[in-house]
Write a structure and sequence with these properties.
Length: about 140
């Protein structure tokens, strides 16, 4: 992959999933920097800090089922940050097979896409083409 993003944020409570996704993203040369947070509230704080520094990730891969703050709660907090259209894109990356989750995600403007784990180089290429390509 020639075109790549500056920064990607992984929000998933599973360290193993984050590690696997980091390897896939690095191997595909999809992003220069990959940040992983296992606690959604920490990810919100990270985004707040990066917003102030002008160094936001372009893409957030977000799990749904996490303790304390799940993916839906994360999106609620993210919306409060007030990004308009220029904020990071959010892709729900989940193991959920509940069709209600995908339907719910489709009704939230801030969620760009909804897909099942795990990532793959082919999925990353499709994400770039559909959501970041200027052609």
């Amino acid at each position: 992959m020639v075109n790549k993003l500056q920064k990607v944020l992984l929000v998933d409570d599973d360290d193993i999933v984050n590690s696997i996704n980091k390897v896939i993203i690095k191997h595909a040369k999809f992003a220069d920097e990959i940040v992983a947070e296992t606690i959604a509230s920490n990810a919100i704080n990270y985004i707040k800090n990066q917003k102030e520094e002008g160094s936001l990730p372009e893409l957030i891969f977000l799990d749904i089922n996490m303790p304390e703050m799940d993916g839906w709660d994360f999106v609620d907090e993210y919306v409060k940050l007030g990004f308009e259209e220029n904020g990071p894109r959010i892709i729900m990356l989940t193991s959920s097979i509940n069709p209600r989750d995908e339907n719910r995600a489709s009704l939230i403007d801030e969620i760009t896409d909804f897909m099942s784990k795990p990532l793959s180089p082919e999925i990353l290429e499709r994400i770039y083409a559909e959501h970041f390509s200027t052609n």
